[in-house]
Design brief:
It comes from Amycolatopsis australiensis. This protein has about 290 residues and is α+β, with helices and mostly antiparallel strands. The protein has helices spanning about 15-30, 35-45, 45-55, 60-70, 75-85, 105-115, 135-140, 150-160, 165-170, 190-205, 255-270, 275-294, and strands at about 10, 60, 95-100, 120-125, 175-180, 210-215, 230-235, 240-245, 250-255. It folds into two domains: about 1-90, lambda repressor-like DNA-binding domains (434 Repressor (Amino-terminal Domain)), CATH 1.10.260.40; about 95-294, Endonuclease, Chain A, CATH 3.30.870.
Length: about 290
């Protein structure tokens, strides 16, 4: 096949960024892994073009994605999921990754967004979110699905905890985490796991790049009672994106009006929440209560 200078379009939307993450994931899964030069020769493009597909600089069109997947031997449901993203099927402002809770595609999408975001705000009314979970807590959540093999559970736990690199790196991603009070009073994983998780929350709450606030959920109505969400902001001109996690799917919204509504809701939740010192004191009191009861 003759080479071409075609690369693709700049990766700007959330859908495109998630596609980048999935293409990189299937490439890194290869064993043995072909070189970019080998792939380029098969696809008729420069190896630097494929490198730009994998780092998100540009996004290949559906035809190129199809060829890329064929070269790597990606077939079945995995291929179809990626091709749906590549073809831009569904709403232009709402897109979905599907699978069981904790599934790799959803986590891959989150990792890709967090690697490029300039800040994120997360609301989680009932449980500690993935960015702040300890391994035992993450394992208790992911391992609840009886259909997930133990080896896959460990792989997904590792991937979920890998997200935390974004807030632990030398130049950390600024995170505002607003948790419902029930998140610290739950029993996920049992008493020992909850104690470990609560102590971790106290520790991370002292990091400069992390703002941790608690909010009551038993008062008057507010939109946060409908469920958790994350708002990702990016450097201009990239639009902000909202992530919504469900039982078997994760939805990503980048319509301007919808995103603005979620940003306003996040502001409302911050107004309702305890301040950082009060929140830390509530967590420490919960730790003391559990330790005294054990």
């Amino acid at each position: 096949m003759a080479r071409t200078n075609f690369e693709g379009a700049a990766a700007a939307t959330g859908r495109q960024r998630t596609l980048t993450g999935l293409l990189r994931a299937v490439y890194e899964e290869q064993d043995p892994r072909p070189s970019l030069r080998q792939l380029g020769a098969q696809l008729g493009v420069a190896h630097t073009t494929i490198s730009r597909w994998l780092d998100g600089s540009v996004t290949p069109d559906a035809e190129r994605v199809s060829g890329f997947l064929a070269c790597l031997g990606v077939v079945g449901d995995k291929r179809e999921k990626i091709m749906r993203l590549a073809r831009g099927e569904g709403s232009a402002e709402v897109w979905v990754t599907a699978g069981p809770p904790g599934v790799a595609d959803q986590l891959t999408a989150a990792v890709q967004l967090e690697s490029q975001a300039t800040s994120m705000v997360e609301w989680s009314p009932l449980f500690v979110p993935g960015m702040l979970q300890v391994p035992e807590y993450a394992r208790a959540i992911i391992g609840r699905n009886p259909k997930t093999p133990r080896a896959e559970v460990e792989q997904l736990v590792t991937l979920r905890l890998g997200r935390q690199h974004a807030i632990a790196r030398e130049n950390p991603l600024p995170l505002i985490a607003i948790l419902g009070v029930p998140a610290i009073r739950g029993a996920i994983g049992g008493d020992r796991t909850m104690l470990s998780q609560l102590k971790h929350l106290v520790k991370v709450s002292r990091r400069k790049a992390i703002t941790l606030r608690l909010a009551e959920v038993n008062g008057d109505w507010h939109g946060g009672l409908l469920g958790s969400f994350i708002v990702y902001d990016f450097a201009q001109p990239m639009p902000s994106i909202v992530s919504l996690e469900h039982h078997r799917t994760a939805s990503f919204v980048d319509g301007a009006a919808d995103v603005d509504d979620y940003k306003q809701l996040a502001s409302t939740l911050l107004d309702l929440a305890y301040d950082e010192d009060e929140s830390r004191s509530l967590i420490e009191a919960e730790i003391e209560k559990r330790e005294n009861a054990s």
